[in-house]
Amino acid sequence: MTPGRPPARPVPEPDPTADQATKDAMSSPTTVSPANSASTASTLITNIAALVTNDPSLGDGSPLGLIQDAAVVIDGERIAWTGDQSKAPATDNRVDAGGRAMIPGFVDSHSHLVFAGDRTAEFNARMSGRAYSAGGIRTTVAATRAASDEELEANLTRYLREALRQGTTTFETKSGYGLTVEDEARALRIAARHTDEVTYLGAHIVSPDYAEDPAAYVALVTGEMLDACAPYARWIDVFCEKGAFDGDQARAILTAGKAKGLHPRIHANQLSYGPGVRLAVELDAASADHCTHLTDADVDALAHSRTVATLLPGAEFSTRAEWPDARRLLDAGVTVALSTDCNPGSSFTSSVPFCVALAVRDMGMTPDEAVWSATAGGARALRRDDIGRLTPGAYADLALLDAPSHVHLAYRPGVPLVAGVWRRGVRVV
């Protein structure tokens, strides 16, 4: 995904009564030498008020590795150096960040972006008192099956551009709205043209075509459909929930995927207590996603595993459901990621900053924890160490904020704070 850079936004005049940090944050970043196209030249970004590196050995020693008055050097696609701007090495090009904060690009590790259709009426009804259930997915399945490849790809790229403008530089996306061999395979084929983080979710719900024979659908998902989809995917997922797939079915599906070289992730414990989280730990799933209804045993299992608890506050916001208890997980030592769950039915947002604000306001996270979870946490949920951090060797995926601190992502909810985005060393916003 390398969309073109949109027109520059007008920069407001500084308020003469504002403090100097605010004035600096409102000034426009200045590029001294061109650095907005693919190049092997090195670029220094300097005058960064606060740099989130996610390396606790740097800066203030916190998990964010926060460096004040910082600079970053990009060399090709990678970060070559980070540190105090007074110690920055010479480079070919230079960008003045204008006293703004800089963070790693967001890592959105859970989304459902290959779909067609609209579910406005469902959302409107739910906000009027109708409870959400997994059955709503069938509406999107019908629309997705009817759409052309071109329509599905146009829709996907539209939301990718939208997410990129809000600072997302890495995203995972799933199939799950086709539920036939042909439709699941084409969804993954389309997704794989835009990201390496592709997930086979033939087990989203039991296909309407197999409503009277769920066992036959599980056989299809673990057989012919898996064979067709595995070449395009890195991950396999299942919605382990009442109304979707039970624990035994989910184990069979994920185990079959592992045998084909796909690594498990799982929709777990979203709508009710169930076996999803413990199954995720048993199978060494990269992430258990949602994690709303947890027993003490579930929390303990996550805390003693490599499985990341990916929380998706957009879903709770859009369904008026109970919020996951992030504080409980964090205090137990569980690794937490934040993601959008962008989908047309239960969380139609591509905004990670919005999810950060929700997590701080309603899920017990601090601003530092939420930003870490939306960057480094997302990378952990994808088992990646080359994204989600700004240290030498990592990809140069960065977001520049129209603010002097990353805390403004929660402090100023709903405000478009992302002033610039670099992806793989190229400025794209």
Question: Can you lay out the helices and strands and say which pair or pack?
Answer:
Blueprint: H1 20-26, E1 30-31, E2 42-51, E3 67-75, E4 78-84, E5 93-104, E6 106-108, H2 120-127, H3 137-146, H4 149-165, E7 168-171, E8 173-174, H5 181-191, E9 198-203, H6 214-222, H7 224-229, E10 235-240, H8 247-259, E11 263-264, E12 266-268, H9 276-282, E13 287-290, H10 296-303, E14 308-311, H11 313-319, H12 326-331, E15 336-338, H13 352-362, H14 367-381, E16 398-401, H15 408-411, E17 418-423, E18 426-427
Parallel strand pairs: 2-5, 6-7, 8-9, 9-10, 10-11, 10-12, 12-13, 13-14, 14-15
Antiparallel strand pairs: 1-5, 2-3, 3-4, 5-16, 16-17, 17-18
Helix pairs in contact: 4-5, 6-8, 13-14
Structure commentary:
The protein is built from 15 helices and 18 strands. The protein is α/β, with parallel strands linked by helices and 429 residues long. Strands 1, 2, 3, 4, 5, 16, 17 and 18 form an eight-stranded mixed β-sheet that branches. Strands 8, 9, 10, 11, 12, 13, 14 and 15 form an eight-stranded parallel β-sheet that branches. Strands 6-7 form a two-stranded parallel ribbon. Strand 8, helix 5 (181-191) and strand 9 (198-203) form a beta-alpha-beta unit. Helix 4 crosses helix 5, helix 6 (214-222) packs parallel to helix 8 and helix 13 packs across helix 14. The protein starts with 19 loop residues before the first helix and ends with a strand.
